Amino acid sequence: MDARGSTTSAPPWRRALFRPVSPGQWVADAALGALFLLGAVVFLPVADGFWGGGSLAVVVLMTAALMLSRCSPPLALAVAWAGALFQMGTGQMPMVANLAVFVVLFATAAYGSRLVFWAGFASAFAGALCIALYLFVVAPYFGGDFFSLSVGSGAEMREAVFGAVLVFVSMLFSFLLAWTFGALFRVVVRGRETRRAQVLAEERAAAEQERGRIARDMHDVVAHSLAVVVAQADGARYAASADPEAATQALATISQTARSALSDVRMLLTQLRHRQAEGPQPTIADLEQLYAHVRAAGVDLRVTVDPAPPGEPPAAVQLAVYRILQEATTNALRHGDGGPVDVTLAWLPASVVLSVRNGRGPVLPVLPARPADPGPIAGDGPAASGPRPAAAPRAASGDGRAASADPAARVSVLHGPPAASAGHGLIGMRERAELVGGHLDAGPHGRHWLVQATLPVAAGA
């Protein structure tokens, strides 16, 4: 049983009859019922022609209907009808206890199921008709001081008919008014519930988007930094004996790259813990540092910016440009053929067009690993899912770039797109472009791999 008093294992008939209500609502309904019972008993009719015991029974039935109206609208409607029929069957006149009928009609419209909702609507018509017929046909035989439709002259008959119609219309209006208030209350409550569900769905969607954004940032930071670290570590490994200075420079680059990546990861983790904490994001002013990292990993990176930015681009566009270039150059480092990588940036008045072009890398033949030198492959290249080929090491040159130490050992076989392991990066780049209203294409272009994106500057503002 939950906090509202409902049971998930209750039989269907019980779930159809009773609504889950809180203990506080039970207490409020019981207190209201006690006050109503006290007032109805005080104003019990005691005039001649009325059956005292029957009046008390009607009061009890109407009080029970009122107390059940919130937790069980169908049962309350049935009890109210039972009390009304008993009242008319014993020839009793209207009393204070009959006011409970309005509360019951309100409850059928506010809390009832679809069937109970329309049963309350029909009860308003049936109840008004029964009251009119009872007062002008049945009550006179019990001594009631009302016009009779069955006796009297023609003028009296007309007056009686007019009175019956007037009673029917007035009671129908009163009953429908109570039912309509209940229907309006139902609409308001359901509107609030719908709004609450919409807000919850929006919060979940925003949280999902935030997780996706942080996942993209984490991928961009970690993939780029680790690719540079692995390339530098391989170069330093093979250059340690031949060129200690180059090895020292490679280790310095590894240290700087790792520290920068650690700082970025800490910022992302802070954003995960505190959603309001938005740390500084990369901008186009940080591109030179990005280019330096890529060049330090041994990539011949050639950058062309023409024309230059006309002003200060929107922050979202700057972040998208940085992350797309970061991912594209990382893919060129991990999956390229080791040749030049061309980066082009064209800042137009309404958009920025960027492209990254690199040679498509070779698929190395599957060769038995040499016991003396297993030749680990940097990154997760095309052969990552199968047996690892023996890779030729990269030696660090004087300027920190890695070059092949044994070109003859590499068999170049041009292949198509980068390995499937880079799929998340391509998806992330495309999503970043779409977030600022742009688009991105990536695929083979002749003997090269081309990533090209167009980002509208105005859309990113």
TrEMBL record:
Extent of Low complexity compositional bias: 369-408
Keywords assigned by UniProt, alphabetized: ATP-binding, Kinase, Membrane, Nucleotide-binding, Phosphoprotein, Transferase, Transmembrane, Transmembrane helix, Two-component regulatory system
Transmembrane portions of the chain: 26-44, 50-68, 99-117, 124-142, 162-189
Pfam family, one: HisKA_3
A molecular function GO annotation: protein dimerization activity
KW Kinase (keyword) present: yes
Top EC group: transferase
Domain Signal transduction histidine kinase subgroup 3 dimerisation and phosphoacceptor: 210-276
GO CC aspect terms: membrane
Domain DUF7134: 26-186
Organism per entry: Microbacterium betulae
EC number: 2.7.13.3
Catalytic activity field: ATP + protein L-histidine = ADP + protein N-phospho-L-histidine
Positions of the UniProt region annotated as Disordered: 367-408
Designated name of the protein: histidine kinase
